[in-house]
Design brief:
Elements lengths: L1 H42 L2 H9 L12 H11 L7 H8 L7 H17 L11 H8 L2 H15 L18 E8 L2 E9 L5 E4 L2 E4 L10 E4 L5 E6 L2 H7 L9 H11 L6 E5 L5 H10 L4 E6 L2 H22 L7 E5 L6 H4 L4 E6 L8 H4 L3 E11 L2 H14 L3 E7 L6 E5 L22 H10 L12 E5 L9 E7 L3
Parallel strand pairs: 7-8, 7-10, 8-9, 10-11
Antiparallel strand pairs: 1-2, 1-6, 3-4, 5-6, 11-15, 12-15, 13-14
Length: 481
């Protein structure tokens, strides 16, 4: 009996302890509910505060959590599922970079979250006007409205006489330089809704329209990209090609050989991708004309497309039309006597595999004393050309056979490993000169220390990337027998 009495006392003591803890927990719960209610009422504004004052006389039963609030609180305190490595990576990437499968998986996850908590699926949107009415008076609302109108309006850039801002349809060059090297360079055409994509980020074409040419814009990754209008040299190098092009360094030398001037009539054989045709078109001007003949149909179509694309871009850029002074023909120059009938040319440019076969057809239509410039890739072709001149007996003299080398150089100020400029150290001849320690102390004390003019040594060396051999240029001059 004594043992049963002892167990009974222990049981009663535990029961009292549990009941006391339950009462304490219920009191803490009621205090927590009141605190949540007060915080919610304090976050509401004018109308909500009036409602809270009206509801002060209500009983304490109204402070209990509703079933909807209880469900929402359970969702808030529920332990979330840990994310997988794929979900972690996809959450850091922008939506534009995600694949359709990942986008579908993300939409399914969001849909499940909306079904579990429908109240959180439609977040509250607070406009700028509502926020101003809530947190400030009418005076505070005027300043942000002016700031908002400032952001809406597009910035207007001052333009010089004859300058125009970028518009859709223009050809631009985007390039990124890092440590004196061109890491990225691309030619593209401005189009509505298009994007420029690269390893350094994305830039929307619409952000470039209305901007002045020759400025930096940051990509989605914060990398500054330099944008400028494409010159004719850029277009020739980066346009779509069929065959190999006549490089600008060789084409310019050929123009000097032929002494092309405004108003001349020039014959070109081998349209290729249209590079030489564009340079000849600009050289002869609106008063001259160029007859371009190409034997291959696919090369003929490519040259015509490149020519028309450049003309459209030029018209948007300058506000006037590029001269339509090039006649493209798909024919074989060796058998095109009818095409050349009744024509006379101030100069001729040949870019063919066997140019010596076309000389008997071309030279009768070339003015006496004029020049025929030949573009040849191999030295064996030069030998065949000279042998053809010797055997055919055409009235032409070979004046020059040249190769045009271009050597890029790197010239830049010498930098130390910490990025500071190197300085020249003159011999210490005078006794009253400051020591090197004093000089270094004075340099550290200045915030923007820059060496004086002539104090920084420069490095000068040939560039690591060089343009090697491209072609041999042969200058033939017609003489009268």
């Amino acid at each position: 009996m004594a043992v049963h009495a002892a167990h009974r006392c222990t049981y009663l003591h535990r029961l009292v302890t549990v009941c006391t803890s339950i009462q304490t927990h219920s009191r803490h719960k009621e205090a927590f509910v009141r605190l949540v209610k007060r915080s919610c009422n304090s976050r509401t504004f004018s109308t909500a505060s009036v409602r809270s004052n009206e509801n002060d006389g209500q009983s304490s039963d109204s402070l209990k959590l509703s079933p909807k609030q209880t469900q929402r609180q359970a969702l808030l305190f529920r332990r979330k599922r840990p994310l997988s490595p794929l979900e972690r990576i996809s959450s850091l990437l922008p939506q534009d970079a995600l694949s359709p499968e990942v986008m579908q998986l993300r939409e399914q996850t969001q849909q499940e979250q909306r079904e579990e908590d429908p109240e959180r699926s439609e977040p509250e949107v607070v406009t700028a006007a509502e926020d101003l009415e809530t947190h400030g008076g009418p005076d505070a609302a005027e300043e942000p409205k002016a700031a908002a109108s400032h952001h809406v309006e597009r910035q207007v850039y001052p333009t010089l006489h004859g300058e125009s801002l970028l518009t859709f349809g223009e050809l631009l060059i985007a390039e990124y330089r890092k440590k004196r090297r061109v890491e990225f360079r691309k030619m593209f055409q401005l189009q509505p809704g298009a994007r420029l994509q690269s390893s350094w980020g994305i830039i929307v074409h619409d952000d470039l329209v209305g901007q002045p040419a020759g400025r930096f814009l940051k990509t989605s990754r914060g990398v500054p990209i330099f944008f400028r209008r494409a010159s004719l040299e850029d277009y020739v190098l980066y346009m779509k090609r069929g065959p190999a092009i006549s490089y600008p360094k060789d084409a310019v030398t050929m123009l000097l050989m032929m002494d092309v001037m405004e108003g001349d009539c020039v014959l070109e054989s081998g349209s290729g991708s249209g590079a030489m045709s564009l340079l000849l078109s600009r050289a002869v001007g609106s008063k001259g004309c160029v007859l371009s003949v190409e034997v291959r149909e696919d090369h003929h179509r490519r040259s015509v497309r490149n020519y028309e694309r450049w003309r459209k871009s030029w018209a948007l850029r300058r506000g006037r039309e590029w001269p339509d002074n090039v006649e493209f023909h798909n024919a074989d120059l060796c058998t095109a006597s009818s095409l050349l009938a009744g024509r006379g040319f101030h100069s001729v440019a040949l870019d063919m595999i066997h140019p010596h076969l076309a000389l008997p057809t071309v030279l009768p239509h070339l003015h006496p004393g004029a020049v025929c410039a030949v573009y040849l890739a191999n030295i064996t072709q030069v030998i065949d050309l000279l042998e053809g001149l010797r055997c055919s007996g055409v009235p032409a003299l070979c004046e020059r056979i040249v190769e045009v080398p271009v050597r890029d150089w790197v010239v830049a100020p010498a930098l130390q490993k910490d990025g500071q400029f190197c300085t020249r150290k003159a011999p210490n001849l005078a006794e009253d000169l400051m020591s090197e320690e004093e000089i270094s102390d004075g340099a550290d004390g200045e915030g923007n220390f820059r060496p004086a003019f002539g104090d920084v040594p420069y490095i000068a060396r040939p560039h690591a990337e060089q343009m090697s051999h491209t072609a041999f240029l042969v200058k033939l001059r017609k003489f009268v027998q």
